[in-house]
Amino acid sequence: MSEKRLRQAIDTLKESGVRITPQRHAVLEYLLNSMVHPTADEIYKALEGKFPNMSVATVYNNLRVLREVGLVRELTYGDSSSRFDCNTSDHYHIICNECGKIVDFHYPSLDEVESLAEQVTGFDVSHHRLEVYGTCEDCQKVATQKH
Ligand SMILES: [Zn+2]
Ligand SMILES: [Zn+2]
């Protein structure tokens, strides 16, 4: 992980007048290090050893603050387990059918889709989301071991 990204993120918080508590710092650092788009629960479990007094609600509250200043994106999938992404540049996701992990990949942004959708439907398009599904390398290994 680049220390630079963490420093930049902390600068953004300072500029937005957000107080940087040790927990908030830890949540941010964990997200920047994580490549799998963790849920609030996973973040809580990873940090509870370090902050025994922290609750899941605190994690949610910190994620909300980070989202409000634009450092974190929330990915909702129609269930209760939102996942959090601190890569706020344009990118796409591939999702594992087995373990639910979400990995970033880059592909030229499909701007034509947005303009076509706008023309065809008359909508004022805000953004789009593209997801590719499959089985991740870890889960493929587990599947081979079972045979
Ligand atoms: Zn998997
Ligand atoms: Zn992502």
TrEMBL record:
Molecular-function GO terms, alphabetical: DNA-binding transcription factor activity; transcription cis-regulatory region binding; zinc ion binding
Co-factor(s): Mn(2+); Fe(2+); Zn(2+)
Keywords from the named record: Cytoplasm, DNA-binding, Iron, Manganese, Metal-binding, Repressor, Transcription, Transcription regulation, Zinc
Superkingdom field: Bacteria
Localization in the cell: Cytoplasm
Coiled-coil intervals, chain numbering: none
Residues engaged in binding Fe cation: H128
SUPFAM superfamilies: Winged helix' DNA-binding domain (SSF46785)
Primary localization: cytoplasm
Cellular component GO terms, alphabetical: cytoplasm
InterPro entries: FUR, Fur_C, WH-like_DNA-bd_sf, WH_DNA-bd_sf
Pfam family name, one: FUR
Binding, Zn(2+): C96, C99, C136, C139
Family assignment from sequence similarity: Belongs to the Fur family.
PANTHER family assigned to the protein according to its UniProt record, in alphabetical order: PEROXIDE-RESPONSIVE REPRESSOR PERR (PTHR33202:SF8), ZINC UPTAKE REGULATION PROTEIN (PTHR33202)
Entry protein name: Transcriptional repressor
Species of origin: Oceanobacillus halophilus
